[in-house]
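Q: Can I see a sequence and its folded structure?
A: Here is a first one.
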Amino acid sequence: MDNAQHIAIVGAGLVGCMLATLLARRGHRVSVFEKRQPPSDSAASGRSTHLVISTRGWRALEAIDAGPEVLPATTPLNGRRIHPADGGDELFQPYGQDGQAIFAIHRNTLNRILVRLCGRTPGVAMHFGRQCVGVDLEKGCIELADAQGEQREVVRADYIFAADGASSKVRELAGADGRIASTRTLEPFGYKEFTMHAPHATALAADAMHAWPRGAVSLFAFPNPDRSFTATLLAPFEGPDSFASLRTREDMARVFAARFPDVDPAPFFGELLGNPVNSLVTVRSAPWTLAGRLALVGDAAHAMVPFLGQGMNAGFEDCMVLVELLERHGDDFQAALGHYETLRKPHGDAVTTMSSAAFDELTRQISEPGFHLRKQLERMLHRLYPERFVPPYQLIAFTHVPYADVLHQIGELDAVTDELLRHADARSEQAATVESLIHSVISRLPRGNHADQTH
């Protein structure tokens, strides 16, 4: 390749490996630097162990031919199974239409696959145990050190990509003079993850994410291929029933008995008490590109809380947009980076906003009858007006409609369902009556501009 460039990528996580593989397959020389050691074969990490792959993520994985290795390690999820606080029958909420599913996978499993694929891609050199300690954009250099801060080296690259996560060192160093503004919002809630091994999870159906929404202290569980479940206990850092007060088996037993009586915590006490409490953070940054040489991707640009399941998918979409811009501009990185932020930042901001809103939905709203009624109305609107109204999560998980367009459509859909709920008690009305009301309300509303759902 005549215009091959040397690219330095800091971060060998999911997004860093994805971008490195895509760029190397275009003929560029890529050096990847990661402060940690290569991911181990151990699945347990106690932190951020579960991800979901939606349509946006699969598009990127298929672009690097990762599907055959990734798919067998996933578990398809058709929806949520809600466990009510009153101990009643669980409620199933589908994610999309019949046959549609998102796919759960262990973060460490996926990272191992992508590191392996990346490392065997011609043109990629991977360097573990090397942390970034300096950035000089004028010279196009990054300074690296080993874990002890010794054995330093300076590497020159034509272009630098920061894929080193929410606490990006590259973003911090490059923006130390104020050229990059970033806000880092730490939520007052944390989470612990633990494993429900198969013998202790026989009552849980393996076709869905299970949720015990109890507000500030909630529980979620994702199935694994071996029929175990990876569970997440959410709680405040401080106050009653906070992680600060959940220090003994008796403390945990009391909280589970009061909030999740159908789950016996005894088999999980070791992990519940021993695993770390992890933080939930939101990061917004601007600009995403600097000096025509540096670009932020994934969490380094737009970290979000995990309740929408789109952090990784959005990061992969960043990578796809970058390579599409390179294709459009004949691998002219200056031109591609000039358009990257303009095209992506509105959608990064939108998915971050939607992820924060999903926190309230998953911990509080989904346990309320009014929420289920609203979702029923959304599905009915979609059935009657399939091109005009699509349930938001269906757009997010099963299409490539840009995130900012989805956020706009959420506002439009909320306005219509609010209007319907004001006109009738849809709980007691016959379906035909509700359909008639829907047609009447829609006929009085102006028709806005809608994104092409096949985009």
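Q: Show me another, different protein.
A: A second, unrelated one:
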Amino acid sequence: MAFSRRSFMKSSVATVASTIVAGRPSSVFAHPRTTDEFVDYDALGMANLIKSGDITAREALEITIRRIEAMEPIINVINTRTYERAFDKAATIPTDTVFAGMPVLIKDMVDVGGVRRSDGSRMMLTNIPKENVKYIDGVEAAGMNIVGMTNVPEFAQLGIITNNKAFGLSRNPWDLSLSTLGSSGGSGAAVAAGIVPLAHGTDGGGSNRLPSNAQGIFGMKPSRARMLSGEAGGSHSPVKTNQSLSRTVRDSAALFVHTEDPNGPFKPIGLITGPSTRRLRIGFARTIRGGMAIEAPVSAAQENTAQLLRDLGHEVVEAEIPVFHDEFFRNYNGAFLGQFSVFNDQALAISGVEAADSGLLDPFTASLIAYGAGTPDDVAAAGLDYLATVPVAYAELFSKIDILLSPVMPFLSIKGDTITPETLVNESVLALIQHTLSFTVSANVSGHCAMSVPLNWDPESGLPIGSMFQAAAGNDGMLYELAFELEQSRPWKDKWAPYSVKYIPI
């Protein structure tokens, strides 16, 4: 039997009422489950329904809660539910804001006032920031309603698998045996599963692009310091930026307007609404020097993307990523691995014993701390000196091309149990992580903008394969214009994962 919009909403209200017991969700399966007729709407589409009075912000929230409760037992992507806070907010969000009360999920690595921030760690389970960071202020000013916090690897360190001992493994909606990638893996899976059409993520080494690549959605890493600060105190991370993972480009572009810093180093790009007529010179890097061989499906997908660009009238030329894999990671590790001792200091302050013995940190994190503790000061200094040359190398590359095209990662997929929170760090574990990050992380060191766009699906497995596009620092608008053009030429919004609310009643 087909449900009308209002009959769906009536069922939704009854079901959601049953899920809120003393502020905690109970089973949603006491009421009949039905097909979600709103699943094909993106965030702006749902916001238009709210603005027109077809639904209310509260009803949009109720729909999202039903989706969470139906999908969580399958994919496990929510660390903290903020239902009561969201119901209070739904009554106050003006309908003339851009998103008019649309629910959003926030990655569990940023401060939201009054909401637990765990960073995926048992050590942080009682950490409740008092106030929003500026980026979250921008998200809420845009009319988004925070309904929960998404799963992450502990302190983002187990970066290619979203798993931790505090909350467990997040599963990829395209294949539950596969990794969501990370560290914004919980956010990516929530979008791919249709829980929300847009979720927040942070990208410190590929964390928005890798999950988007693995889950058939759009992921953006803005230029360094382009966005409102995501750090307490208003500073900017030297490598990490905040933005979103989404089903459509327009949702991401609309949020971008309200979360970019008007006082930052770049002139705000404003609202990008479609493609540019400008034809671009696009450099195509098929591999990275010194890296592992690219798997055949990934290579074929990038060749297909390059041909699409030619068909659209862009000039595609040969290019090389301006770093050598081994040299880059040797210096990257030298510069950063020793800094993980801060987590050991926190564990020691709380428990009185070292991280490995405290029971507060996952064995992976504790072993990473121990591994990095032996980094000599001269190695760390040499690493920082080398990393300072990376922005210069990319600036020279972007003086010759407008955009750089490459794979997002060399693999088609990674099994979810390839590395676990119990895994102890050694050379081979680090090598796997580094190969996975080989195409993405140098953009974070350089500070320029990059995005993953879902343009191909493997014909054998059916898995999505993203293509990464990078542009010079400050050229975020150019990336959005290209993303709109690619989305129009090869739409992906209606390509749904098997384990999503498109196919699973809520």
